[in-house]
């Protein structure tokens, strides 16, 4: 299991609805089950609306699965839907939750700036909101904003990748969704380490929006321009796995060092096979459990029980030494 550090101020650093059981594709909208409205100070019970990003991505599926189990263990009902990183879809989901008088909302926001108004609507309706995985650009609305320490994790990954590169060679970067602050924080974290090694040269960068297929397509484009590239740093595992697919098709995988971020099982397996240098495991299971605990407290007492709204949880480097210990985003001791 992860060792969660004490909550502290955040360092640096989303098909309309998808049911929890869906691992891909869209679905028809499903109204949230009704529950008692709460201003943050009422009795437990009612429904908690869980709004994730895209359960076809293993990371967000783990987030949604964990949240649903934790909510129901506490005696609430739950609804699980996805915003697909689309602010308008997210707005509709928030409005549905408000109309159904849910007790609280756990939200993985569709953009830092784009999500402020949606969270404000819920707060105005006296429904406590806790954010998980990504933050919004305004403090004082959500009861808590709980994210991975993306800067720390990117530093860990970049150092391991640079060593595997022998601190020299050309490389390319696959960048996540620009509206998600995590994309820039991770990119900056990579750069802060890699810039220390002048013989590592960035020769291309593409936005691949956290997606495996897009990552493969963007990597194919990068390879056409840089056929002899020696490394890839990717903002998440799905993009890294897409890059691996592209490299395999070109027969170049054994010549290129790939770095991922998230710790999903496909990436962990790629590390075991030597297809990926490392991935950075985000503590999404522990972070989501923590978020539900704090949301429960906010519903019952009006407060989360922790002093800081913004909380960052450290990540863990996963390489061949510890990959066998990872199962569904959890690291055994």
Concise description?
Helices cover 36% and strands 18% of the residues.
Strand order of the largest sheet: 2-1-3-4-5-11
- What is the assigned CATH homologous superfamily of the domain at 150-281? Response regulator
DSSP summary, beta strand count: 14
How many H/I helical runs? 9
Specify the biggest β-sheet.
6 strands, parallel
Distance separating the two termini? 6 Å
> Looking at the structure, what is the overall shape?
elongated
Q: Give average pLDDT, whole number.
A: 89
Q: Which CATH top level class of the domain at 150-281 fits?
A: Alpha Beta
CATH topology of the domain at 150-281: Rossmann fold
Protein name: Monosaccharide ABC transporter substrate-binding protein, CUT2 family
Keywords: Signal
Subcellular location: Cell envelope
Domain Periplasmic binding protein: 48-300
Can you describe this structure?
This protein is α/β, with parallel strands linked by helices. The protein has a domain at about 150-280: Response regulator (Rossmann fold). About 35% of the residues lie in helices and about 20% in strands. It is built from 9 helices and 14 strands. It has helices spanning about 60-75, 85-100, 115-125, 150-165, 180-195, 210-225, 235-250, 265-270, 285-300, and strands at about 45-50, 75-80, 105, 130, 145-150, 170-175, 200-205, 230-235, 255-260, 280, 310-315, 315-320, 325, 330. The strands form 4 sheets. Strands 2-1-3-4-5-11 form a 6-stranded parallel beta sheet, with helices on both faces. A 4-stranded parallel beta sheet has the order 7-6-8-9, sandwiched between helices. Helix 6 packs across helix 7 (about 235-250). The model is unreliable at about 1-40 (pLDDT under 50). Its main location: other. This is Monosaccharide ABC transporter substrate-binding protein, CUT2 family. It comes from Microlunatus sagamiharensis. Belongs to the bacterial solute-binding protein 2 family. It holds the Pfam family Peripla_BP_4.
């Amino acid at each position: 299991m992860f060792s969660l550090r004490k909550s502290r101020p955040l360092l640096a650093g989303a098909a309309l609805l998808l049911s929890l059981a869906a691992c891909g594709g869209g679905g028809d909208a499903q109204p949230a089950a009704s529950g008692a409205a709460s201003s943050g100070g009422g009795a437990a019970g009612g429904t908690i609306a869980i709004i994730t990003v895209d359960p076809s991505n293993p990371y967000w599926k783990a987030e949604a699965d964990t949240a649903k189990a934790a909510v129901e263990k506490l005696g609430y009902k739950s609804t699980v839907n996805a915003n697909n990183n689309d602010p308008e879809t997210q707005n509709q989901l928030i409005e549905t939750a408000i109309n159904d008088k849910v007790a609280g909302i756990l939200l993985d926001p569709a953009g830092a700036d784009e999500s402020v108004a949606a969270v404000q609507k819920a707060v105005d309706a006296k429904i406590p909101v806790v954010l998980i995985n990504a933050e919004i650009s305004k403090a004082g609305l959500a009861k808590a904003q709980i994210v991975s320490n993306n800067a720390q994790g990117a530093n860990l990954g970049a150092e391991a990748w640079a060593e595997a590169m022998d601190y020299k060679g050309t490389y390319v970067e696959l960048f996540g969704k620009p509206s998600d602050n995590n994309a820039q924080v991770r990119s900056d974290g990579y750069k802060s380490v890699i810039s220390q090694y002048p013989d590592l040269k960035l020769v291309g960068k593409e936005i691949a929006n956290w997606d495996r297929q897009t990552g493969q397509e963007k990597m194919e484009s990068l390879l056409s321009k840089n056929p002899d590239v020696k490394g890839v740093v990717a903002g998440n595992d799905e993009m890294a796995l897409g890059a691996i697919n592209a490299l395999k098709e070109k027969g170049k995988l054994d010549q290129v060092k790939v770095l991922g971020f998230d710790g999903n099982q496909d990436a962990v397996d790629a590390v075991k096979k030597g297809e990926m240098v490392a991935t950075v495991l985000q503590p999404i299971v522990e972070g989501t459990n923590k978020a539900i605990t704090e949301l429960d407290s906010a519903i019952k007492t009006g407060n989360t029980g922790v002093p800081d709204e913004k909380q960052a949880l450290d990540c863990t480097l996963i390489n061949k030494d510890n990959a066998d210990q990872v199962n569904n985003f959890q690291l055994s001791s």
